[in-house]
Write a structure and sequence with these properties.
heterodimer; A: two-stranded antiparallel sheet; disordered C terminus; B: mainly alpha; Fumarate Reductase Cytochrome B subunit; two-stranded antiparallel sheet; 2% strand
């Protein structure tokens, strides 16, 4: 079975926010929630880099580890999805996620109660019937069930953001690195997927080494 | 007399320091661990902007981004902290919560429950030595009882719901399944969030009301030295509140209670620009203090109910029997009746 992953090639991203717009539109994401965003480092400096970031569907997901109701589940493709019917809106996944992926609708409510958590689904919907009206309303479109890849990556104009089977992505990146001679360091890869043995061991991500 | 009090205060100071120092060290260690990865902040030692090396060792740069060594990023997204590319402290918080707080906290609660059960089985209820006289003394006014019971009932609700949020995954879910656990926790979270402010408000009222009677006096030293005679069975004279009650009042109710209240309000009302780090730190202090307070509350509830004959009556009706007052609070008995034993 394929292991689905996201890769953002920081050498290619031009901060056009096409992925952000595609995601917002495809899933009709509510106001105040950004399932995907683009962050620019060293803006206006030589060596400026832009990176598109969303849920990385980590091998050892912190959101999953801290959820009091175990509303998260891992699909056969390695995606980290969640069940909004079991979410209690405690916000723990939001505190724990390194990438700022889980977010909460912040409407006017008594005691600032949070609604159900929302996050990137890798365009794979949620539990329940694939392609159903309920799934669309709660989680957005289930493109994976239709044999399509996430729209953010599909619409990326420079193909900086690519999504799909890890082995295919690795081949694409390897070829790019060979051609241009640098840039093999994939941002966020080690945090989300560890050293490659994480998935098999199911262990936590290593703490960062001291400089 | 004043010298005695001064000496006593020094002793109390030493005891409190001995207790508080390890507690503070533990919390400081937590704080330092989370604080060192503070996201979105510029490390004064690092250059404000570090240029990404073109084609060489970008991995080192991204590692620096992860540890928030450089200036935060820029994004057109308007949600709070959207410009923070990565926050590693989230995983630190996860390890502290799922590690020491859950594991040590769980063992602490279990150990206290076992200890009190054993104590009850060995020692049993502390009986009144003399028959009740039928003459009643006013111990708690209506206001005091009202405040106490609001705090007590809300505390029990908060403790049960709070513990279920921490341990439900390990205790409720394996037996009843994820759906039942999720439904219960949905109720628990809402009860917890709405009861919390009520608890905090009445807690402050209670502290204000009883602070004066809980100031330490010279007679408390004897009680502390003999552990209230709980083991030997002898009765140590004390004022309106004995040393055990005062210890619970200052350490449990005041220090831990107020810590829980303040951090609880930070967590309950995320409307004032709290960052994720603020929430993580607030949660660590909230959960740790709450577990200690619950452990101490077991002792308080035990001695106030089945542990000591006639104690519950005082908080239920407001009145205690003269025999009870003479036995447990001789100094107080003498003060209000003007009689010696």
């Amino acid at each position: 079975m394929a292991r689905m992953k996201f890769v953002c090639d920081a050498e290619r991203c031009i901060n056009c926010n096409g992925c952000v717009t595609a995601c917002k539109n495809e899933h009709e994401v509510p106001w105040g929630i950004q399932r995907r965003r683009v962050v620019t480092l060293n803006e206006g400096q030589p060596g400026e880099k832009s990176i598109s970031v969303a849920c990385m569907h980590c091998s050892d997901a912190p959101c999953m580890a801290v959820c009091p109701t175990n509303c998260f589940y891992r699909t056969e493709e390695g995606l980290v999805l969640h069940d909004k019917d079991k979410c209690i809106g405690c916000g723990y996944c939001f505190y724990a996620c390194p990438f700022g992926a889980p977010q909460f609708p912040n409407g006017a409510s008594a005691f600032a109660a949070r609604g159900k958590m929302d996050k990137c689904t890798f365009c794979a919907g949620g539990p329940g019937e694939n392609g159903s009206e309920e799934e669309l309303k709660k989680y957005g479109r289930n493109r994976l069930a239709e044999g399509k890849l996430p729209l953010c990556a599909e619409m990326c104009s420079t193909k900086a953001l690519i999504a799909g089977d890890a082995e295919v992505l690795s081949d694409i990146m390897r070829e790019r690195v060979l051609r241009r001679g640098y840039g093999a360091e994939l941002w966020g890869w080690r945090v989300a997927y560890g050293d490659g043995k994480q998935a098999q061991r199911g262990q936590r991500v290593h703490a960062p080494e001291k400089p | 007399m004043s010298r005695l009090i001064a000496c006593w205060m020094r002793r109390v100071g030493r005891c409190t320091a001995a207790l508080l120092v390890p507690l503070l060290m533990v919390t400081a260690a937590y704080g330092a661990e989370v604080g060192s990865y503070r996201g979105g902040r510029i490390d004064p030692q690092a250059p404000a902007v570090m240029v990404v090396p073109q084609g060489h060792n970008a991995a080192a740069f991204y590692d620096g981004v992860r540890r928030s060594l450089y200036a935060p990023g820029v994004t057109s997204i308007q949600t709070p902290e959207a410009n923070v590319l990565i926050q590693s402290e989230g995983n630190t918080w996860r390890q502290i919560r799922n590690g020491p707080i859950t594991v040590w906290g769980g063992w602490l609660i279990l150990a206290v429950m076992v200890a009190i059960t054993l104590f009850y089985l060995v020692k049993g209820t502390i009986k009144l030595h003399e028959p009740t006289t039928g003459r009643k003394l006013l111990r708690f006014t209506v206001y005091e009882r009202l405040v106490h019971w609001v705090v007590a009932i809300s505390f029990v609700l908060l403790a049960l719901t709070g513990l279920s949020l921490l341990f439900g995954k390990h205790l409720i879910e394996p037996i009843f399944g994820t759906s039942v656990n999720a439904a219960l926790l949905w109720v628990a979270k809402n009860v917890h969030n709405y009861t919390g402010p009520l608890f905090g408000f009445f807690l402050v009222l209670m502290i204000v009301r009883w602070a004066k009677d809980n100031l330490f006096t010279s007679v408390d030293w004897l009680w502390a030295k003999k552990f209230g005679g709980l083991l030997s069975g002898e009765e140590i004279p004390s004022g309106r509140f004995n040393f055990g009650e005062k210890f619970w009042f200052w350490v449990g109710v005041t220090v831990l209670g107020l810590t829980i209240t303040v951090t609880g309000l930070i967590l309950d009302f995320p409307l004032f620009g709290q960052t994720r780090q603020d929430m993580q730190l607030a949660h660590i202090f909230h959960a740790s203090a709450a577990l200690f307070m619950i452990a101490m509350a077991f002792g308080h509830i035990y001695i106030g109910t089945i542990g000591s004959e006639g104690s519950l009556e005082g908080m239920k009706t407001g009145y205690v029997d003269e025999a009870w007052a003479k036995q447990h609070h001789a100094v107080w008995y003498q003060e209000i009746t003007g009689r010696r034993q």
